[in-house]
Structure formats: C-alpha cells, structure tokens
Amino acid sequence: MKRKIVIGLAIYSIVFLSAGVYVIRTIRNSTASLDRLITLHQVEILREHYLLEIKRVQSDLMLKDTEYSRAFDTFVTHVMGMGGLIETCFECHHSPRGVERLNGLKRQTDRYKDALSRVLTIRANTARLAAEKDTAFRIGEELIGEVGEMIAFTTSRLEENTQKAMSEIERTKYILYVLVALGPLVSVLLGFGFISGVTRPVKVLLESTRKLKGGDLDHRIAGLKDEFGEVAASFNEMAGSLKEQMQKMQRTEQMMVVGELAAGLAHEIKNPMAGIKVAMSVLSQEAYISPVDKEVLQKVVAEITQLEVLMKSFLNFAKPQKPRLESVNANQVLNTTLTFHLKHHVLGSGEGGKIQVIKELGELPSIQADPTQLQQVFLNLFLNALQAMPRGGDLGVRTCLEEDGKTIRIEVSDTGNGIREDLVGKVFQPFFTTKPKGTGLGLALSRQMIEQHDGAITVANRPGGGVMITILLPVKAEGAAA
Amino acid sequence: MRKRWIASIFCVLCLPLLAACSPKEPPPSAKKPSVEKLQIGLIPEQNLFRQMERYEPLGEYLSRKTGTKITFKVLPRYGNIIDNFKSSNMDGAFFGSFTYVLAHAKVGVEVLARPVALDNTSTYYGMIFVRKDSRIRTARDMKGKRFAFVDKATTAGYLLPLDYFQVHGIPDYKGFLKEAYFTGTHEDAIFDVLNRKADIGAAKNTVFQRLANDDPRILKELVILTRSPDVPENALALRKDIDASVRNRLKESLLTMHLDPGGRKVLERFGALKFIETTNQDYCVVRKYAEEIHLDLATYEYMNN
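Structure tokens for the assembled complex are given below, as produced in the milestone run.
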C-alpha cells in the first residue's frame, strides 16, 4: 500500500508537474510570440520613422535655395538623424539575409549623404547645381522606394505573425480551460482511487473482525495485498492461534475433568484394590490352593500391580508435580538413564535383534531442571524407541547447544517403522497410543514435564525411516524461576 | 565687403561709449568668453557628415578631459568659419592652413595643435590632377576645360591652381577655362575628375591618398601634374579671448592624449598618431606662398562666387 501511495503521489505529482510545465511553456511561447510582435512593430515604427526622416531630408533638399529653405545646421541635423537611424537598425537581431539587405540600405544611405554633402558644399553654375540636386533627389527617391518595400514586407510579416500569435494565444486559452477543468477531475479520480484503495481493505478487515467476534474461528481473509495483505496474514494467523488456544483450553478442561475423575476413581479404587491385592497374595500362599489356582492368583496380583501403575500415571498426569529445579547436565542424565535404568530394565532383556546405541553428545552447559523428571522423560522416549524396534535397530541419542547459546537440543531417534503421517500430530494427546498395551500417557506426560521446564518437544518421521523426538530446553541461570 | 569692415571698426570704436551709456548691460558684440562650453567649427575637408562622425569622438574625449563641453559644427564652406568668428558664434575651429592664415589675419585666432598622420607626417601638399586618358599634361592643355577647385580659402584646392596658372602665364583662369567651380570638399574635387564631371581638379594629398586606399581607380586613372609646397595639416585654433586656463587645458589634453590608452583609441579612430604643438610660425610657408601669388590677405575675398 505504501508503495502504491508513493507511486500514486508520484503519478499525481508528475501529472501536475507536466501540466505546470506545459502551461509555463505555452505561456512562454505566447509571450515570445507577443515579444516578436512587439519587435516587429518596433521595426515597423523604426522603418516608418526612417522613411519620414528621408522624406524630411528630401523636403529640405527641395526647399534649398528657395525662400522656404531650412537653415544649414537644421539640414545637417536632419541628415545626421537619418544616418543615425540606419545604424540603430543594426542593433536589432537580423537574419543574414536581413543584414545583407540592411547593408544595402546603409550603402544607399551613404550614397545619399554623399550626394547631399555635394549639394550643400558645391558652388558652381546653375546647370551643375541643378544636376547635383537632381542626383541627390533621385537617390533619395530610390531610398524611399527601398525603405517603402521593406516597410511593406515588415507589414505583411507583421500581419502574418499577428494572426499566428493570436491563433496561438487562442489555442493556449482553450488548453488552459481544458487543464483547469481536467485538473480537479483528475484530482477527484485519483482521490477516489486512493480512498477506495484504503477503505476497501479496512472494510474487509472490519467484517472479518466481526465474524471472528461472532465465533467464526475458521474465517480467513483472502485477496488483500501489500500492507493490508500483511495485516490479513497476521489476522489469519491470529485466528488460527485463537482456534488452537481454544482447542487447547477445551482439551485442558477435558483433561482437568478427566484428571479429577481419574484422581477420584484412583482414590476410590486404590484402597479396595490394595485390599484385593493383599488378599490375593495371602490367598495364593495358602497350602490348599492348587498350583493352577496359585498361578491364576499371581496373575491377578500382577494385573492389580499393572492397574496401580496405571492409577499412578493418571494421578501424575492429573496432578503433575512441580519440578524441583537444580543445576543439571543433560548429558549426565542421559548417560545415567541409558547406563542404569534402560540397560538394566530393557536392553538386558531384549527379545529380538540387537539394539545399538549411537551417542553423539556435544558439550552442554548446565541447565536448571528436575533430574528425576528429565530421567522419566528420557526413559519414556527410550522405551518407545525400543518398542518401535522389536527386531533390533539403532537408538540414536544426540545433544548439542543451539547457535544462539540459549537453548540445548536433545534428539532421540530410532530406526523403526515410524508413525503414520496423519497420526503424527496426535502422539502427544493423552490416551492416544498405537501400542496394544500402551496407556497413551507416556508422551503426554513427557510433554507436560518438558513444558513445565519452559521447553518444547516435537516428533517427526526421519527421512530414512523411524522417528525422531526433539527436545529443546532453555539454558537458565541458577536461581531463575521455571 | 569693405563697407562691412568699416562698419565693424566703427562699432568697435563706439563700444566704450556704449558701455559708458549703459554700464549694466554688456554690449551685444562683447560676448563673454564661455568656459563651460566651446563650439568648434569644422571645415568641409571631406563629406560633411563623415567629417562630423570623424570629429565627434575627439570632442567627447576632450570634453571629458578638460571639463569643458566641446561641440563641433560643420560648415558648408571654408570661408564660413571666418564669418562665424566675426559674428562670434564660434570659439575655435580646425582650420586648413590657408584658412588659418586668413582667420589669423582677419580675426586674430591663435593656433594650438595639429595632428600627426599615421604615416608620421603633420603636413600636406596640394595637387593638380587630371585623368590619364584626358591628354591634359600642361597648363595650355587646360584651355577650354572644366576645373574643379575646392574652395577659395584652401591652399591645395585654390592657391595651388592660382599659382600654377600665374606661373604658366595665365592671369585670368576664368576666361581661359570653359568652367571653373568649387566642389566645397577635396573628396568631391577628386571624384568629379575621376567620374568625368570635371577635366582638372585640385585637392590635398592626404585626402587623395585616403580615397586611393579605398578606391584603386584613383591611382590607376588619375595623374598628378603638379604639387604645392608642404603646409601644416589642419590645426585647432581658438579665439584670442578664450580663457587662458581653458586654452591651456585643451592644449595639454591634445598634446598628451597619445599617452593615455583612451586617448590612443580616439586617435586611432581619428586617423592620427598624436597632436603636436603648432605656432603661428609654422604657417610662414603659407604666407610666403600667398605673397608669391600676390594675394593681400587683409583684403582677400575668400568667399566663393
């Protein structure tokens, strides 16, 4: 949107700048035309003035030696004035052809001045004087004809240029009218485009918010772009997160109910079951009980023991114990679990193929954690891995410190058959299990404990087969709260 | 003319009496010398208007340097200058050599300075010339021909031909020639012969040479028959009663203008290297020449007919 606004403003500015430049250029052209007209008028006036000066000198010449003769000084002043005017013409800019014509006019003027000078200075007989006067007059008339031609030419050019300038000014006027009319129209269109570009996404967002408020958590915004697109993505993400949180809350509530129910049941069942177990144990040791019955009774006792374990798991899940944090080295806990518990309880009694443990333990800093809970989590993961490889395989254990230096990573992998992709997201749900005798609480308890340590646990199928469980735990300073 | 002289002398003699009668009003002829502005006359050595154009930059320069407004006034005839001095309209003039001698003799002007031409000469001489194809080579060949003089108040344009005719035993040229007229300028005398308007002409060599530089026909088609002695080039002279300080400033400005960059530019346009001091003594040659022709300067009728 920001880019669109910038582009819109740039287009708007360019349009107005172009219009401004065009208007200025048009006005400048019109002014230049008017300047040309004024110059031509000046030239015309100058030439007419020059013509008048020549005619005045001709008049002085004709009146010479008559009773109306002008004073000599006046005559000279008039001739000098005439000569000065032709020099003025050269001050204006002319084309080479114009300069050539002016040079011709100047030469003609000089000839005229020479002839006038002769007339003024010569003292001779009447015939010679008359001849000189006639020569001067004739040159003067030629000059008048020449200047007259130039005036006619200037006049025709003036008319032509006037018409051209007037039509140009007229055109400029219409263009200005059009621009004056188009300017607001363009502004309105651009403004409308700009406002609708902002209000439409806002309206969509508002409607979506209302739907979300109405409980439609599945509603998603589509079709918005740019910054509004980002807002829509955040909105969609928020809606998704909200839905997930809602589901989590629902699940938590369910779990709380289940937990309370389980705890109640466990409390109610535990004592009678203990009595039954003791009774069955005592009964199985009676002499009159046949070996077959004894075996049955011992199986009952074993089932009751299994039920107690299950009850304990229920109680742990329903009322999780708060972790007792202390400085722990995760590698050490892993080693202990592998060395004592796992080996003692499981590896030693492998049914099928051989289980090979592959350890890649990196150097880890101490973390604040409950070692018992960690051990329980690791044991769960190891047991799951071993159960996933009934015919043997590789149990991978890898640890490392993340690049940020604030998290440790623990990976437990197996080379079993892996988990169906559609079930991957459900393995941490309580009571979910793929095993015939599983309680479905192992991974759920593990996640509960890891989350109590502000950590995270994820599961994924490995590309080469098998499953990899990844645990991320924060490295906290000693004394920091969990 | 004689009557005018007598009237003038009478007026001069009566001036003290008139002054005594009305002491508060100065006599009209006793014009107070102006120091704010000087009007300088120009003789029509060349085309009247070119003459004005040639001198105008000099006038502007001298006005700037002396603090006195100097204006020029071109006159249609050489003799008009002397008339203007008589009527006190003019404060000074660039005189031709013979005009100065006449003006000095008649109205007592004093010469200050004259230019040195680009060829480093400060004198000129008169020439009589004809067309090469005219077959006129001697004074006798001139019989029945048309003669273009310049002005009766010029050395080159009149004294020289007068001397020439006298030397060759022709006391009255008017009866000898078919037509004699005065062109008024040296230029026109030269062009008239060149353009066959006249058969014989007289003019000064400096103008002849200047025109020849622009028009090659002059040297190609004209032939010089004789020449006069060298005489001083046209010089500036002022009335006697001009204030001495003004006179000195003007003279100083003229004599030093070639030392000033601005002055050198004006001199270049004027067609001179510098101005040099000129005195009355420099004109002895002209007076001697006039004496040889038996001219009485005091009574010489300088106006053209």
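Residues 19-119+232-292 of chain B form a domain with the D-Maltodextrin-Binding Protein; domain 2 fold (CATH 3.40.190.10). The first strand of chain B starts at residue 37 and ends at 42. Further analysis is deferred to the final report.
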